Amino acid sequence: MILCIDTNTVVQALAEHHPFHPILDAWVAGHVTWAVSTPILLEYEEVLTRLSGPARWRKLARLMDLAEITSSNLLRVTPAFRFHVVAGDPDDNIFTDCAITANAEFLITEGWRFPAARECWLQAPIDFATGVYSSIPYSSKNHLRASRKLSEWLLNSGAYMHWISAMPVWYSPLCTTRVEYSKT
User: Fold this and answer.
1) Residue 79: is the preceding peptide bond cis (ω within 30°)?
2) Is residue 76 a part of any domain in this protein?
3) 10 belongs to a structural domain
4) Contact status, residue 123 vs residue 107, Cβ threshold 8 Å
5) Hey, which end of the chain has fewer CB within 10 Å, N or C?
C-alpha cells in the first residue's frame, strides 16, 4: 500500500504517543510504502527545522534513507507534470502530484482542501490510523479497489488533464537549492 503523507500529519505522527503515530509505525514495520518527492522533502525539512530544530529533521531524514536502503518502503518519485488539483491552496499540489505520480492508494492529510478527492483516496490521519491500519496486511482485492477509485476520480474530476495542457516541471533529485518556499 502506497501512501503520501501531508506535512502536518508527519509532524504530529512523530510524537510517540500521538494518535497518528501508528501511521509511521506501519511504515517502519514495512506494511506501507511512503511516497515522497523532492518538493515534499524540502517542505518536511523546512517545517520540522522551524518547529523542532535541525536535529529532528536530520533524524527523520536518516530514518527515511535507512528505510529506503533496507526495506525499500520509501518511494521517491519525480512528478513530470503539475496536475493543479488543489485550487484553494496551491502549495498542497506537491502532495497530489506525488500521490498521482506514485499511484498512491491514499493521501493522508487533515487539510480538507481536496473536496473532489475526499471520497476516493483522501484519508484523515485518525481514520487511517484506526481504520485502514488495522486491516494491514491487505488483500490484493483492496489494493485494486483503491487504485481503481483513484483512477476513476482522476478521470471524472478533470484533474487528469490532456498531456498538452498539463504543465511540465523538472526536479533534480541531486539539486539541494530551494527555489520557492511554501507558506505552511
Assistant:
1) no
2) yes
3) yes
4) yes
5) C
